[in-house]
Amino acid sequence: MNEDKEFLKIIYDYENALLVFRIDQDEIWKNVKVTESDISKYYINNLGKYTVQDTSGKYITKPLEIVRSEISNELQVLKFREVEGNYIEALKQKYPLTINEEVLSKAFIQ
Which pLDDT score is estimated for 56? Predict the structure, then answer.
């Protein structure tokens, strides 16, 4: 009987993980767009991140072509967080949360 409960918990957790993945795909990632303009602006505004010292001690800036994928990945993460935050705020507006403080305080009494 105990194994059945553990198995059901595993299935429940798996279903929740699939739901989160689906929401990420359908509601968030589809709205994350990184353009060439975004990449260029980010590169120009963050040149210091791409400046390195060569073997002779001279500072050189890595060309955009070399760091393009790194910048694209970083911008995707930043935009994902922004879109995710906006999505969560929209959900909060649509489905206001009410916390019952009395019930919550009783939940943590041993």
Answer: 95
Coil vs helix vs strand at 103: helix
H-run or E-run covering 10 = helix 2-23
CB 80 within 8 A of CB 27: no
Quick one: how many helices (H) and strands (E) in the chain? 4, 2
Enclosing domain of residue 21: 1-31
What amino acid is encoded at 9 in this protein? Answer: K
> Is the pLDDT assigned to residue 100 strictly greater than 60?
yes
Q: How far apart are CA 90 and CA 76, in angstroms?
A: 21
Q: Which two tokens stand for residue 95?
A: 């489905």
Same domain, yes or no, for 44 and 92? Answer: yes
Specify whether 18 is located in the same domain as 60: no
